[in-house]
Amino acid sequence: MAERINAVKTSFFGKGAIRLLGPELQKMGIRRALLVTDRFLYDSGAAARVGQVLSDAGVEYAVYYNVQPNPTVQVVNDCIAAARTLQVQLLVALGGGSAIDTAKAASIVVACGGTVEQYEGENKSSKPGLPIVAVNTTAGTGSECTSFYIVTDPVRHSKMAMVDPNCMVSIAVNDTDFMSSMPPKLTAATGMDALTHAIEAALSKNANPLTDKDAYWAMQAIVQNLPRAVANGQDEAARTMMAYAENVAGMAFSNAGLGMVHAMAHALGGHYNLPHGVCNAVLLPYVLAFNSRSPVCRERFMTIAAAMGLQGTFTPDTAAPVTTLENFVQTCKKPLFFVGDGATLCYNTYKNVPGVVCVPQPMQVLRGAGVALAARAMWERGECVPPAALLPDYHRLSQAERERAEREKTEGKQNEV
User: Fold this and answer.
1) Interval 51-99: pLDDT, tens
2) Cβ distance 148 to 161 under 8 Å?
3) Which residues, including other chains, have CB under 8 Å from residue 403's CB and lie 6 or more apart?
4) pLDDT at residue 134 above 80?
5) Does residue 92 contact residue 35 with C-beta atoms inside 8 Å?
6) Least confident of 48-52, 131-135, 386-390, 405-409
7) DSSP of 136-180
8) Neighbours of 115 (CB within 10 A)
9) What's the pLDDT band for 186 if we cut at 50, 70, 90?
10) How many CB atoms lie within 10 A of CB 163?
11) CB-CB neighbours of 149 under 10 Å
12) Strands across the sheet with 121-122, in order?
């Protein structure tokens, strides 16, 4: 079967990699650019550091610094207006997935016309967008090397997914100098996003030898280096390995696709504006348990378990998950949620608590939307919450919700009578 593999033209890695950008821009003949970032990176001086590289390369630039987490249609439209007004030749995204996805969406609309909403879906653009340089500041989204971008539609309370090779970045810069200041919570959340990318790519029906190579290596590297990066943000070796790992995990899922975790995580994040990596971490173990019904997935679990360094035996023709899968799910249930300056996993505190775990008032019972709201509230308070504590059995919850809806429907009809 013929397959297409999409890849970034040029990528730079390592401490000080931003210095390699200038000569590339001179080769491209770029004279005017728009730097797309958020207010924090602008105020912290990170934008000025990138701007200096642009200026030294003879590139005139302006800064759009209104990017927000889970960028909305309005954020993208404002970026488009700035790019058009300034007649820029290049967009330079500084940040994580939010900044890079904003630049991708703007590049397509500026080049092809129309509105951002018109490009929801697959391969909707007629030609390549404006060239993009992505200066990555997180190690998780993989947006700097994928053909995907996500834009939030607040009207529908949903996230629009766009899959289009025409949006791909021209130059990706993974300079650990821009990653070392990531706080532990963000490091953990983005790292779990990368791990989910790798696992879902490996389980995808479209997986192939190239995507498998990237996905399995990424799993191993993330398991070995994410705890170190969370415990000590200045661990240069761990930060560097996470930069490589999230990049190749991004390459894997960009070409193999994703699965139920991301399908539900985007819905959850779009409705409640939750951190994407947190949604993935909460949902991942339950999707794995569901996927264990598939003989194909059970076969692949063995390779995944080996990549993650898990021990155990597994019989592919066994209907129920056994040692390896159980260990695998348990590992994913401790989603590397670290808080404070230390590297404390709270998983062991909660792992033996059955069913729903009560949380501080006013959220004593987690159910339906309450799961998302409680997760966000506890995350913002800096508390460690493993998925096992937040989400019991989502299949059971879904059934309960359906039963409740049927009861309300029946009661409503009775009241009408």
Assistant:
1) 999 999 999 999 999 999 889 999 999 999 999 999 999 999 999 989 9
2) yes
3) none
4) yes
5) yes
6) 386-390
7) E-SSS--GGG-SEEEEEETTTTEEEEEE-GGG--SEEEE-GGGTT
8) 11
9) confident
10) 17
11) 27
12) 121-122, 158-163, 148-153
**Alpha helices of 12-65 — where are they, by DSSP H?**
21-28, 39-43, 46-56
Amino acid at the residue 230: V
- Provide the whole-model pTM: 0.75
| Nearest Cα to Cα of residue 98 among 186, 177, 188 | 186
Instruction: Answer whether residue 380 shows pLDDT above 60.
Output: no
**Amino acid at position 178, single letter:** F
Full strand arrangement of the beta sheet holding 171-174:
10-13, 171-174, 132-136, 90-95, 32-36, 60-64
Q: What is the pLDDT of residue 177?
A: 94
Which residue in 33, 34, 15, 17 sits closest to 25, CA to CA? 33
Q: Which two tokens stand for residue 409?
A: 């429907």
66 membership: H or E segment, kind and range:
none
Plot region of 314 (φ>0 → left; ψ -120 to 50 → alpha; else → beta): beta
Long-range contacts of 85-89 (CB under 8 A, 24+ apart): 86/32, 86/34, 86/62, 87/32, 88/32, 88/33, 88/34, 88/62, 88/130, 89/30, 89/31, 89/32, 89/33, 89/130, 89/131
Which residues are CB-contacts of 382 (< 8 A; sequence separation ≥ 6)?
185, 339, 340
**pLDDT value of residue 361:** 24
Q: Which amino acid appears at position 229 of this protein?
A: A
Which tokens hold the place of 118? Answer: 């018109």
DSSP state, 356?
P
Residues 6+ apart with CB under 8 A from 191: 139, 140, 222, 226, 229, 230, 242, 246, 277, 336
For residue 139, which of 277, 39, 6, 5 has the smallest C-alpha distance?
277
3-state secondary structure of 304: helix
90 within 8 A of 118, measured Cβ to Cβ = no
- Residue with the bigger pLDDT between 197 and 271: it is 197
